[in-house]
Amino acid sequence: MKNKIRRFIVRAKRYIVFLFQYLVLEKTRGLDFTMRDLTLYKESNGVYHGYSKTNEKHLRDIFRRIDYDECTKLLDIGCGKGVVLKEAVRFPFKKIAGIELEKELVSIAEKNFKILGIADKVQCIHADAVNFTEYGSYNIFFLCNPFSEKILQKVADRIFDSKKKGDVITVIYHNPRFLNIFEDGWQVIDKEMLHDAMKDYDTCILRLKV
Ligand SMILES: C[S@@+](CC[C@H](N)C(=O)[O-])C[C@H]1O[C@@H](n2cnc3c(N)ncnc32)[C@H](O)[C@@H]1O
């Protein structure tokens, strides 16, 4: 019961903060990173998860921990409206991109980037993570629990197959529901857990060897 009440308070606080961010900081400038979109979730009966953003402050805490000699090319798998890419621009990545299945969200992300003047620094690609063929061009991957376990397994296999034996990659997995897929299938070099108090979710940063 206590836990239920605590979760209710955390969620209520988050909704208030996010609504403030949207109405005051975003809508007034034509931006939208914050509003949830459950279209894909409903249409796919929960196989593909809908859009909700990762908290910006938490993203900056994550990116401060990254080794930029090793992690140079970031791909956000299921990038939605582009909040991860927007925050990544503050850090010395050499390449920053995201893939997103829902076309409407790609358009919103592109509009956001144009308004912020970062459209030349980031790329939002309309693609299904299951069929994406360019994983080999990236060495750090962000995932915010974008789909079911079965789909994640397929995507992890594709990333694995795109690499050479001995390659090292970093996976940042927010709300890591199916961490076993990476921990059991790959050689784990480092593992760090962070907690986002605002959303009450963990993030796992994994360094993995193929
Ligand atoms: C929880 S949101 C995360 C958005 C963003 N990465 C963030 O952390 O703020 C997950 C996103 O994954 C997208 N998605 C779900 N299945 C996908 C797939 N098969 N390929 C590409 N994107 C997908 C959804 O449309 C949604 O925008």
Explain what you see.
The chain is α/β, with parallel strands linked by helices. The chain has a single domain, classed as Vaccinia Virus protein VP39 (Rossmann fold). 37% of the residues lie in helices and 22% in strands. The chain has 7 helices and 7 strands; from the N terminus they run H-H-H-E-H-E-H-E-E-H-E-H-E-E. It has helices spanning 2-26, 39-43, 56-63, 83-88, 103-116, 149-161, 180-185; strands at residues 73-77, 95-100, 123-126, 140-144, 168-174, 187-196, 201-209. A 7-stranded mixed sheet has the order 3-2-1-4-5-7-6. The radius of gyration is 17 Å and the shape is globular. The termini are far apart.
List keywords for this structure.
37% helix, binds S-adenosylmethionine, seven-stranded mixed β-sheet, 7 helices, alpha/beta
